[in-house]
Amino acid sequence: MINRKVLYGYQIRNGALEIVPEEQRAVSMVFTLYNAGASYQAISDALNRQGIPYCLEVPLWNKHKVKRLLENPRYTGKEGYPILVEADIFQAAQGKTAEKNARKQSHGEKPAIARLTPYFRCTCGGKMTRLGGGWQNSGKLYLRCEGCGNTAVMDMEATVNGIVRQFRDHEQPSYTAYTPSAEVMRLDNAINRGLEQPDSPEAVMALILQGAAARYACCPEPSAESEPSDSLTEADWRRFQRAVSHITISQDTEVTLIFTDKKATGKDE
Question: What is the pLDDT of residue 182?
Fold first, then answer.
């Protein structure tokens, strides 16, 4: 595992850039899954499940790291980097991203935070409203209770993602359970044997990547209109409107969805 001061997939040896084989396989997996329809989040989850590290200091992947990887043209040989991804594969990924962005624009989607703000309530029961002003950090959400006057400053993206996760957790019983195939179990056994006797790390890494692809194949096939797991489609928003009564925000910025069936979810900051 190498420090991520160098673009993922490469290392510097004797003053020259060279490809790291095990990371090359991970990059190939990322592009393959994305071009097959997987979201950034689904890909990062697959990498983390298989124990494929991003770097020594921060080994876990997230959707942002996956997105940056998919958008980086240096993988095709730009700026003196060895070619790690063929140009047609890279362009196919850019086409997928362009299609997704075009769908969002054509739908005229409102920002998620604008849809969620009317649901915000203080623990006193008062309505929480957004504060405006040029002094604000654009990535922060500034709220004040119209009742008691309490204020809250929250990370906007983390707040939205936490709300979406709580909503999806509430709907989880209706989702199709993941069922591993015989191939997944076979590869899991092979991986475990390889880890116990790691005579060939390259072979073990290849098995891990095969296992990730096999696990992904067991998941429901994503539709052309599918969105990342931390965003909501228009159909999701309609269910959200029916299911959610309000969203409580405490003084220490804990967020809790209160549903019309009176069930409260766990809390996300």
Answer: 82
